[in-house]
Write a structure and sequence with these properties.
The complex is a heterodimer of chains A (58) and B (688). Chain A is an all-alpha fold and 58 residues long. Chain A contains three helices and no strands. Helices cover 83% and strands 0% of the residues of chain A. The radius of gyration of chain A is 13 Å and the shape is flat. In chain A, 26% of the residues are buried. Chain B has 20 helices and 14 strands. The longest helix of chain B is centred in the middle third of the chain and has 57 residues. The C terminus of chain B is likely disordered. The chains are: A mainly alpha (58), B alpha/beta (688).
């Protein structure tokens, strides 16, 4: 059986932007040991962080 | 998961404490046979394992028996105890999973209350010893449940620990059962984190959208609202489709049972066979009609022109004739005529005075000329119409062909339906009243099935349309948001969350589809190794549907599950279990034990032989609870020849409600077992 996480990261990388890959991988990794509510809260912060980093790069 | 030992104390038929060790794969021996006559406690051992692992008091085979009538505490032990004194019963199960050792102990109390047995569940304790030898004791029931489910999900427990005679019901599961099974399989596939991530990003998108709503313009709000409505409509359609699928499978099942009943009436057997053949033809033509209709739908847009084709033809002919005559574009341009009239002088320098014939002729030309814009429009129109005229014949021909084709299919369907009605009347007209009643029920079910299939097709079409709308709305929204994004942090957030959610959904869909295909492929291979030659030829393919239900296709690639025998269903279910287990196992070997109560009841000798030869090779452990009618010298000899048979137990009555477990040396087993007789052969064939 293929390793699910490895597979997720690989497919995300193949098809998406760097920001989507970062957020997607983080969402799955947080979901390993957290419930939906907690993951949502943590992702909100991560989204702001990713967009801030993008602005800084620009 | 490998089961190592089970100890039972005052549980079901087992008075006092008794222990049974399973062949667990050491030295290649991984098969345990527990042998006993009916009522000796084979199912009691099966029940003990289920009770210990999941706290189940009830097995699926208990049917509608009320729970208070199912006694787990041994009644002899209760009678031996002092009146009004509770008796403790327990089951201890030792097992290993990926190197970690587990000892699970689950207890219950029973008491005789004026001739009525009352029972109460007691505590459970799980002792876990990890790879380094560290031991941890867990007593919280929720934590124990979580740990056991992580090894063998409750939703799929009956895939590995099952009653052989009932296992074929896996192929007839209800929608509710399928949902539970699908959940268990997803848990085995370890995609629950991905599912949580999908749910979380969906919620994230909604949160950001709600915030975005405060600063979005009217257009964006409208798009978001339409997308939400689209999602609700898709959810409603999907729910109805799932419900419909359940109703259809129930109706198919019911119809199959009626057919089996009808089949018993010899005088109508031939008619029933003819009707089945016609029903297959009708189904096939219904599919053809669906395809033809879809092709016609595709033509509808282009064929709209055909409605106004007479007008198009006459306008084109009119302009074309004018063009041929040189009137379009006109040979004399209007601006030239205007100049002659204004200057009163022709291009040849002759005077053209008012009132002369030449002047009147020029004025007449002027009347026939048009403005340059009108001329251009006429030429453009001519060119467009030329394209339409040239393709309309081809279009009309292909539309006519499709309409005839559809009409022919409908005629065929009408013909088949009429013949079906005739046959149904003949069947219903037989003197057997019960056959008539069955026939009425069958006709009703047949009509319902046709209606439901039609509704399903409509809903499938509608779902496809909704998905297309959704794609278009999403694209519009994305472009609108990108437009806003330059100055909106909220838009950027919503867009990133939405892109991530969609990406995760794509990964999930493709991963689960791949796994389903793999399980289907592997189940087909195993099925073909287990089934007899005729089965291999007539049932070439097993498919796992989106809801993880099973379907088998015949050699004409038509769904055939409703028509296979109980024995074939049992073999198919075992193949599916093996395929599922190997899909989730790290190595080629299935990591779960196959614990089978009454494994061979419905199987022919060829199927038994195949199972005995194959299963010990692909399962880590095989535990058989068999009676003397299904496990005889022949089966025992076959099993011995595999060199996998590790332990053999005999369940012997030692007074009422008191069974003793005795281990027998395998080399002595043959002396205990009966020969298979001709009568048994017939019995097997009849059952299979």
């Amino acid at each position: 059986m293929p390793d699910v996480n490895e597979r997720i990261v690989q497919q995300l990388r193949d098809e998406n932007s760097e920001d989507v890959v970062r957020l997607g991988v983080l969402a799955v990794s947080l979901s390993e040991s957290n419930g939906v509510e907690s993951v949502v809260e943590q992702l909100k912060g991560a989204v702001r962080e990713i967009l801030r980093a993008d602005r800084d790069k620009e | 998961m490998i089961l190592q030992r089970v100890s039972l104390c005052n549980f079901r038929q087992f008075n006092g404490t008794q222990t049974l060790e399973f062949a667990s794969g050491s030295e290649g021996n991984n098969v345990t046979v527990i042998f006993g006559e009916n009522g000796r406690g084979k199912t009691g051992i099966f029940r003990a394992v289920m009770f210990c692992l999941f706290g189940d008091r009830r097995l699926s085979q208990d049917g509608d028996t009320p729970e208070h009538e199912l006694y787990l505490v041994n009644t002899s032990a209760l009678h031996q105890a002092d009146p009004n004194t509770p008796v403790e019963a327990y089951v201890q199960l030792e097992f290993e999973h990926r190197g970690v050792r587990y000892l699970l102990d689950r207890r219950l109390l029973g008491m005789d209350d004026d001739g009525r047995q009352i029972e109460q569940n007691g505590p459970a304790k799980l002792t876990v010893t990890d790879l380094d030898g560290n031991t941890k004791i867990v007593q919280d029931p929720t934590e124990i449940r979580g740990m056991v489910n992580a090894i063998l999900d409750r939703g799929v427990r009956e895939y590995f620990l099952f009653d052989g005679e009932k296992i074929e019901r896996l192929t007839r599961a209800s929608a509710e059962h399928r949902k539970e099974v699908a959940k268990g399989i997803r848990s085995l596939l370890n995609v629950d984190a991905l599912e949580t991530a999908i749910a979380a990003t969906k919620r994230l998108v909604k949160t950001f959208e709600a915030e975005l709503d405060t600063e979005a313009d009217v257009e964006l709000r409208r798009l978001i609202k339409r997308l939400q409505e689209n999602e609700e409509a898709r959810d409603r359609t999907k729910d109805r489709l799932a419900q419909l699928s359940d109703e259809i499978s129930k109706a198919v099942d019911e119809k199959r049972q009626i057919d089996e009943e009808l089949d018993k009436f010899n005088e109508i057997r031939e008619l029933v066979e003819r009707r089945n053949l016609l029903s297959d033809q009708l189904r096939s033509r219904q599919q053809d009609a669906g395809f033809a209709l879809a092709e016609m739908k595709q033509l509808v847009g282009r064929c709209a022109n055909l409605i106004v084709m007479d007008t198009v033809d006459s306008v084109f002919t009119y302009i074309d004739e004018r063009k041929e005559k040189g009137e379009i574009p006109p040979q004399v341009r209007m601006d030239l005529i205007d100049r002659i009239v204004a200057d009163h002088k022709c291009i040849c320098d002759r005077e053209v005075l008012e009132g002369t014939a030449a002047y009147d002729a020029i004025i007449a030309w002027r009347g026939r000329s048009a403005s340059p814009e009108l001329e251009r429009a006429a030429i453009d129109l001519w060119s467009d119409l030329k394209g339409l005229v040239s393709e309309h014949e081809e279009l009309a021909r292909s539309a006519t062909t499709k309409v005839y084709q559809y009409a022919n299919i409908n005629n065929d369907m009408r013909g088949i339906t009429e013949r079906l009605n005739d046959i149904s009347k003949q069947i219903g007209g037989s003197e057997r009243k019960d056959a008539q009643e069955l026939e009425h029920q069958r006709s009703y079910l047949q009509k319902r099935l046709i209606d439901m299939e039609a509704e399903r097709q409509r809903l499938d079409d509608s779902l496809r349309d909704l998905l297309q709308d959704q794609q278009s709305l999403k694209a519009q929204r994305k472009s609108k948001e990108q437009e806003m994004m330059r100055n909106s942090e909220l838009s950027r957030r919503a867009l990133l969350a939405s892109d991530t959610h969609e990406a995760l959904v794509r990964v999930y869909d493709s991963f689960t589809q791949e796994i389903r295909e793999r399980i289907g492929h592997s189940a087909t291979e195993i099925f073909h190794e287990l089934i007899d030659q005729e089965g291999r030829r007539s049932l070439p393919r097993i498919v796992v549907d989106e809801d993880y239900s099973l379907q088998v296709y015949d050699r004409w690639n038509k769904p055939f599950l409703a028509n296979i025998s109980a024995g074939q269903r049992q073999v198919m279910s075992i193949a599916f279990i093996a395929a599922l287990a190997s899909a989730v196992s790290v190595h080629d070997l299935i990591e779960m034990p196959l614990f089978m109560d009454t494994p061979f009841g419905r199987l022919s000798f060829e199927h038994r032989r195949n199972l005995i030869n194959m299963v010990p090779g692909f399962a880590a452990q095989w535990i058989l609870l068999a009676t003397d009618t299904e496990f005889r010298k022949q089966e025992a000899q076959l099993l011995k020849s595999t060199d996998r048979w590790g332990r053999f137990y005999l369940l012997r009555a030692d007074g009422e409600d008191d069974t003793q477990i005795r281990e027998i040396d395998i080399s002595d087993s043959l002396a205990l077992l009966r020969e298979r007789s001709i009568a048994d052969e017939d019995g097997w064939q009849h059952q299979s």
